[in-house]
Design goal:
By secondary structure, the protein is α/β, with parallel strands linked by helices. The protein has helices spanning 2-22, 93-98, 124-139, 155-165, 188-200, 286-293, 311-322, 346-349, 359-371, 377-385; strands at 51-52, 64-71, 108-117, 145-149, 172-175, 209-213, 216-219, 224-225, 234-235, 243-245, 249-252, 274-278, 298-303, 326-331, 352-353.
Length: 388
């Protein structure tokens, strides 16, 4: 009898322990749920960390995200045994969405095909069409964010263009992939889900246009492609990434920026011609003369070191600047500032320094400045200096 009593008491203790354990995280007055305690906190905790990736819009439903497709490797198709020899821009926007399990639990999605090209063929016409459509969707109040699928080769240029012409604080997120949709371990579906998570996150508002790949967020100003094949190719060499994405949350490690630079209306296509002159040893002025002979309204020097080049080239650039051509010195080096009036006397030459913008983005900014009638060297310099 005594042993039976002991067994009954032991069983009661076990039941109590089970109740306590399963009660962890239970809602008051409701069924028990798993604990909602946050996971590990990354560096930068407290700066937009742990925001739900599926926060509801004002209507209380899932956020409404438009997926605008332009082609690229993310829409490419090839032999499933290889990531080599594929053709970009084959899958449609709907195909890309269908390839991501559970993406409909993150947001209510709509899909549009803006173009279906490799990003090496990206052009002013597609830029303008894309920007106008994004502004239209935001103006009509139809979406809470936009995701643009894009090839990785020129994604940073398109992102930078959109960052300067989209007139909303709602997020625009560009996404691509390094492997085609049919390759082994294609990275496109995971990248697309991450991009939708970011576009749907309330903490993404006010951050301008972003690029998301490999679970990492980058600003349009600083992001650049650094490797020809690696899925970790995108870096922000001057400022570091904006944040990271995991299955549960969008984690920003940088504060919302205070925008200081100009915002431009969407220009008409084609934009003014601006050419990049790449500097190297034994350089001559021939590339400058060639660009001008074909009607270039602006020139960007991809200079050595701190935006420098050979004396004959500097002389030709100065002559062009004093004739009304906008001339900006940038650097072919992967990071760092191109400093005004350091080794090169910009005041004397009539040129501007690109500050932290690389040659490709400097070219886009000069195109926008030209399209808006901003050609005075002092005003051009101001636009570059206030990027950060």
């Amino acid at each position: 009898m005594r042993s039976r009593t002991v067994l009954l008491r032991f069983a009661a203790l076990l039941v109590g322990a089970v109740v306590v354990l399963t009660g962890c995280g239970a809602r008051p007055g409701g069924a028990a749920t798993p604990s909602s305690a946050p996971g590990p906190v990354r560096a930068g905790a407290g700066v937009g960390v742990g925001k739900p990736a599926h926060a509801a819009s004002d209507s209380g439903s899932l956020p409404r995200i438009a997926v605008l497709a332009t082609g690229g490797t993310i829409a490419g198709k090839a032999n499933a045994n290889s990531a080599v020899g594929y053709t970009a821009g084959q899958a449609t926007a709907e195909d890309l969405i269908k390839a991501v399990p559970g993406i409909d639990k993150v947001a209510t999605l709509s899909a549009e095909q803006i173009a279906n090209i490799g990003s090496q063929d990206m052009n002013d016409q597609v830029w303008v069409k894309l920007a106008n459509r994004i502004n239209e969707l935001f103006a009509e109040g139809k979406v809470d964010g936009v995701v643009v699928t894009h090839g990785t080769d020129t994604i940073e240029e398109t992102a930078f263009f959109l960052d300067n012409v989209v007139s909303s604080d709602r997020p625009v997120v560009l996404v691509g992939s390094m492997r085609p949709a049919t390759a082994l371990s294609a990275d496109g579906p995971a990248n697309l889900r991450s991009a939708v998570q970011v576009a749907a996150a309330p903490s993404a508002r006010g951050r301008g246009t972003m690029v998301v790949l490999n679970d990492t967020l980058h600003s349009a100003d600083d992001v650049t492609k650094t490797n020809t094949t690696s899925v970790q190719t995108f870096k922000s060499p001057n400022t570091g990434p904006l944040g990271y994405v995991d299955a549960a949350a969008v984690n920003f490690v940088q504060p919302v920026p205070q925008r200081r630079h100009s915002h431009f209306p969407v220009p008409s296509a084609p934009l003014p011609r601006v050419d990049i002159v790449y500097s190297h040893s034994n350089m001559t002025a021939d590339p400058v003369k060639e660009a001008l002979s074909h009607g270039a309204k602006g020139l960007v020097l991809a200079g050595v070191g701190d935006g420098n080049t050979a004396k004959p080239v500097l002389d030709a650039l100065s002559k062009a600047a004093k004739s009304g051509v906008v001339v900006v010195r940038s650097s072919r080096v992967g990071s760092g500032e191109t400093v005004r009036n350091a080794e090169v006397d910009d005041d004397r030459l009539g040129t501007s320094a690109a500050h932290f913008l690389n040659p490709a983005k400097s070219r886009v900014l000069v195109q926008l400045l030209q399209a808006n009638g901003i050609t005075d060297p002092a005003k051009v310099q101001e636009e570059f200096t206030t990027r950060y």
